[in-house]
Amino acid sequence: MMESTMPQLEIGSVKAKLPIVQGGMGVGVSLSRLASAVADEGGIGVISTAAIGRIKPDSDESDSTILREVIRKTKALTRGIFGLNIMMAISDFNEHLKVAIEEKVAVVFLGAGLPLRIPEIISVDRARNCFTNLVPKISSSRAAQAICKFWDRHYSITPDAVVVEGPRAGGHLGFRMEDINNPEFRLEVLLPEVIKEIVPYEQKYGRSIPVIAAGGIYSGEDIHKFIELGAKGVKMGTRFVATNECDVDSKFKQAYVDCSEEDLILINSPVGLPGRAIKSKLLTDVSRGIIKPINCLWKCLKTCDRRKAPYCIAEALSNARNGDLVNGFAFAGANAFRIKEIISVKELMSTLVEEFNLVTSPTA
Ligand SMILES: Cc1cc2nc3c(=O)[nH]c(=O)nc-3n(C[C@H](O)[C@H](O)[C@H](O)COP(=O)(O)O)c2cc1C
Q: Residue 290's pLDDT is what?
């Protein structure tokens, strides 16, 4: 890898060479192969724990056991830094967080929900003293303030970093449908607002709480722009799907290469949030009111109402992961249509560094 002028990213007890976090992507999109490749290149790789049991459909092991195996496999593959993405909305949240702490995972990103209460099974002392750094993902300065205030008042701790995700991201979005295209909610606007909320807690605790920007970040120039705006790092999902190492079937990756801007649509997900995805037959059927029967054996999402959900999202995402994009769909960010080829993680990271360097020293 060429010399980088990018700053390093320090989250609590860990320091990554590059300020690039690969977004955790479920179901089974970011597992050990992708996360270890990103970690090897100096970024932070992230395993998504959402419905992780679906990667071994014939196994009777619990999701937590399968998660532990995936973590151990990743450890065996890389000496770099990797973390987990655990959605607040999943029923297994507490168990997955417990596994993360027991396995001494460096960072846990907490997505899809407001992580106010620290689960009792973990205990505040443990959260304060464990190796694992806790990083909530939020989409407004109000949410940043609510978490910092609650953790300060009840636990005397701060988050180890915060991810602020704007409305151009892939996957579930922390916005109301009507706010997604409102310029007031652009990442460029949200980021400085979130940083302002965090500063008093940095001062009170005498520590840095890095703010990481996410959602629609595509190039090294974009990374530079958000670092100039005060971000200490960026989190990117869409770009990492289109890599050789991404843990999905090649048809999923090809859907990224083939999609046009018009194919990227907003949906109402059974999780109870809007989401951005590539149009598929399943999504078209659902938009026409065709209900897909749900055979729900295990309520994997706390927020899913089985009686009203038009389809099972875990199954749809798992189908897509395995290459069935007719009975499933791929989540994707607003920039997915710009992807023209599948490359290696090494190539992607080098390109991002090169583009970033060109902004900082254009004659180099
Ligand atoms: C295919 C895909 C699946 C995703 N799954 C999850 C998930 O399970 N949990 C989560 O918190 N975020 C999820 N995300 C969001 C990413 O972690 C990341 O925050 C986002 O992709 C950043 O925006 P970008 O795609 O424009 O780079 C997903 C994104 C994509 C593209």
A: 83
